[in-house]
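Entry 14. Ran structure prediction on the chain below.
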Amino acid sequence: MLRQLEKLSLEADGRYATAAELQFLKNYLATAEQRISAYEKIRDAQETIIEQVDQQLCSPNPHIFRKGNQDYTAVCQRDRRSVLRLAAAAMLFADLDALRDGFLLWYRTIIKAFKDEKAARVTYQVLPTVVNQVLGAEEAPLMTPVMALTQSILGE
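Output, structure tokens:
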């Protein structure tokens, strides 16, 4: 959304924007109330979401976040909070490009460097389901593309 506004500002400099150029703004404004509501619900339920994801991941494999004698549960929870917060912001601002380019691709490199692909794959399969349980029927579809992008990049 913000990138699209900036692009429109540059392209329409010295003239009025066309109806076609304004359509993205109309589409965004039509869903603004649901986006804000979804963002607030995710923000307010963040700890519940993280706990539910942990329960679903650890119940079949209690040592999913262990490497040798080290328990990385707290680190993984911190990272999931960051992913969730940035995903919610991407949904709020309708900006998947910023999420992908500014965070997800970098974080995928970290996951691969630490050889955490298996835990990430399972985590980002479970996270969308838990997030959707928090959101209403009008809000969940707004978060679906964000969760799909997150899962495709981090859960590969």
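Strands lie at 66-67, 70-71. Will compare against last week's run tomorrow.
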